[in-house]
Design goal:
Blueprint: E1 2-8, H1 14-22, H2 30-35, E2 42-47, E3 53-58, H3 66-73, E4 78-84, H4 91-102, E5 107-113, H5 120-131, E6 141-143, H6 152-165, E7 177-178, E8 181-185, E9 189-196, E10 200-202, E11 206-210, E12 214-223, E13 226-227, E14 230-232, E15 235-242, E16 254-256, E17 263-272, E18 282-287, E19 290-298, E20 303-313, E21 319-324, E22 329-338, H7 349-357, H8 366-373, E23 375-377, H9 378-383, E24 393-395, E25 398-400, H10 402-422, E26 429-430, H11 431-437, H12 443-450, E27 458-461, E28 464-467, H13 474-489, H14 497-502, H15 507-515, E29 520-523, E30 526-528, H16 532-540, H17 549-556, H18 560-572, E31 576-578, E32 584-586
Parallel strand pairs: 1-3, 1-4, 4-5, 5-6
Antiparallel strand pairs: 2-3, 7-16, 8-9, 9-15, 10-14, 11-12, 11-16, 12-13, 12-15, 17-20, 17-22, 18-19, 18-21, 19-20, 21-22, 23-25, 24-25, 26-28, 27-28, 29-30, 31-32
Length: 587
């Protein structure tokens, strides 16, 4: 299916043209029939020569209903631009053209209607002059009479060519259905309609209604009046919803799959058609079928920050337009560059941001986004509309830019060197302190940094990071050497608390010696050589099994103060076993 919107001044024959092409009545409301003009969106469809269905969104032309018109044009890629031969170019013709140009619509057909009432050539020349400097320049032209039917065959041929030339969206695109109508049907419940530009919807699919975030499911689907188990975009579709009442959904809401779209109320954009410094501070932004009041903050010569009064599900590359309802003008179109822009809090931040935005593309580039942001959750990157770059480093649910990972590793080495010089007796920099110092939002990213080649000498022990082997300060090293000398001759005669104090070895110094591998802690206040356990097992193996504490103490040449905790340590390490009668044996 293909979808085309009408555009043009009020009462120039848009609805008449649709009736001529489809045989259907696009005007839905009694008031529209009574007044003879379209005040809301109408829909009709036909089949073109290759068998494809072509749906029309008939939009109102009257200035009072331009917002309704924008709701219909927003999601549609092509236009049937209508100008009456007997009136020529009119005010709403210009406003509709401004909107289409701002949205970047490039495909369509110019139709000169009422060609039986006046020579169509002057109106055609006038229209082409207006289109010349816009995205719709050079449209093919057809002259038609809705009364006599003259030119209808030519118009159908032009529509055939238009349909065959429209680009096809990717089949795996994430769907986003902007709601343009909502109503109830007895026995079915809430129904919404909209133009699905890409992706697919299916019966029983779970969706989210944004911006509210309400979870709903698809009870049924209709495409051009026919029930369907699934619908692929582009298409006009009606969705029967479970999980929501009519008063909970409105035009401008969007149906999307869960966790695949970001809702945002601040975006950075590139403007088309106007200098941002010349815009009103408050305008209405139109995107899809939504219309939201927004505050405009100029950044550069063609970039601005838009702060929306309400959040919308937007992606990088979305096209929207800014409209001034008071002046009945569309002063600018906007291309979304960033849906998660940084805060502009510091002096000069706006100027710096303008320079950054000069390098942004008009489409979502996963590699560029990761390079700019340095790290991002993979789900968020996808929700922005970008794909995961091939070189990204994974850290749990995060993606990390390789170049920034390497820069962080170098920064970490400097942190560790500084910390170890200032606090030589500590076990290293706490991992949480390192994470905060590197401004990382998650510990998983710190783990990824530690895998960098430059961080090969960084070790992690008991929640602390250390660079290289532990190094003891000279006074501590000398005191520990004296203890080691004593233990070499009497391995199990641990120094007393008094002796340790006299040597200047407190708890911090002793803990540092244990981390450095110079001593082994057997129990509180009991320190031996690092190989004390193996030496003990070798000596105890000479005793008959089982053996008593007293026998062990005598064999080891030590006191009860050392023998008791040493045997307990051997039991915890499953080197010995204490029997029910209080004796011990080697395992």
């Amino acid at each position: 299916m293909r979808v085309v919107a009408t555009a043009g001044h009020v009462d120039h024959g848009k609805s008449t043209l649709i009736r001529l092409l489809t045989g259907m009545e696009p005007d839905r409301w009694t008031e529209e029939h009574r007044r003879g003009l379209t005040i809301d969106l109408g829909f009709a469809w036909t089949t073109v020569s290759d068998g494809q269905q072509l749906a029309f969104v008939d939009v109102p032309g009257h200035e009072r209903f331009v917002a309704n018109m924008l709701a219909g044009v927003g999601p549609v890629p092509a236009v049937l631009f209508v100008v009456a031969a007997d009136e020529g170019w009119m005010p709403q013709s210009g406003e509709h053209l401004e909107a289409l140009h701002a949205l970047g619509v490039r495909h369509g057909v110019l139709v000169i209607t009422r060609s039986d009432l006046a020579d169509p050539e002057p109106a055609a020349r006038q229209a082409h002059e207006q289109l010349a400097e816009t995205s719709l320049a050079g449209l093919p032209t057809v002259c038609v009479s809705g009364t006599t039917g003259e030119g209808a065959a030519d118009l159908r041929r032009s529509l055939d060519e238009l349909v065959s030339g429209l680009p096809r969206p990717p089949h795996d695109a994430d769907p986003r259905l902007w709601v343009d109508r909502a109503f109830t049907i007895r026995g079915a419940g809430t129904v919404v309609t909209g133009t699905l530009p890409a992706g697919s919807l299916a019966v029983d699919q779970h969706l989210v209604l944004l911006p509210g975030g309400q979870e709903v499911s698809v009870r049924g689907l209709q495409c051009l009046g026919t029930e369907a188990p699934h619908v692929d975009g582009p298409a006009r579709v009606a969705v029967n919803l479970r999980g929501t009442d009519l008063d909970e959904v409105r035009r401008g809401d969007a149906l999307v799959p869960p966790r695949q779209w970001l809702c945002t109320d601040v975006v950075d954009v590139r403007l088309r058609g106007s200098d941002p410094r010349e815009l009103s501070a408050r305008l209405t932004m139109h995107v899809g079928s939504a219309a939201v009041v927004t505050r405009v903050r100029p950044l550069g010569t063609d970039t601005a920050r838009l702060s929306l009064d309400g959040p919308l599900p937007l992606r990088i590359g979305d096209r929207c337009l800014l409209r001034d309802p008071g002046s009945h003008r569309v002063p600018a179109g906007a291309l979304v560059l960033d849906v998660r822009p940084p805060a502009l809090a510091r002096r000069g931040a706006g100027r710096r941001r303008a320079v950054e935005l000069e390098e942004f593309d008009d489409h979502a580039d996963g590699a560029a986004e990761l390079r700019r942001r340095r790290w991002i959750r993979s789900e968020e990157l996808r929700a922005m509309g970008a794909t995961e770059p091939s070189g990204a480093l994974r850290a749990g649910s995060w993606l990390l830019d390789p170049a920034h990972r390497d820069a962080l590793a170098k920064q970490l080495l400097g942190l560790l060197n500084d910390y170890q010089e200032r606090y030589p007796l500590e076990g290293g920099l706490p991992t949480e302190s390192a994470r905060q110092a590197l401004s990382l939002p998650d510990a998983a990213l710190l783990t990824a940094v530690l895998r960098a080649p430059d961080a090969a000498d960084v070790s992690v022990h008991e929640g602390r990071l250390r660079l290289g082997a532990p190094r003891l300060p000279e006074p501590v090293r000398e005191a520990v050497a004296e203890i080691r000398d004593r233990l070499e001759s009497a391995p199990f005669q641990a120094p007393t608390a008094t002796e340790l104090t006299e040597l200047g070895l407190g708890s911090r110094q002793l803990a540092a010696a244990v981390r450095a591998g110079e001593l082994s802690k057997i129990d509180q206040g009991v320190f031996l050589l690092p190989d004390a356990v193996e030496q003990a097992v070798a000596r105890l193996a000479e005793l008959p099994s089982p053996f008593t504490l007293s026998q062990a103490r005598q064999t080891l040449g030590t006191t009860r103060r050392v023998a008791v905790p040493l045997l307990e340590l051997l039991a915890r390490r499953h080197r010995t076993e204490r029997l029910a009668d209080g004796t011990h044996r080697l395992r």
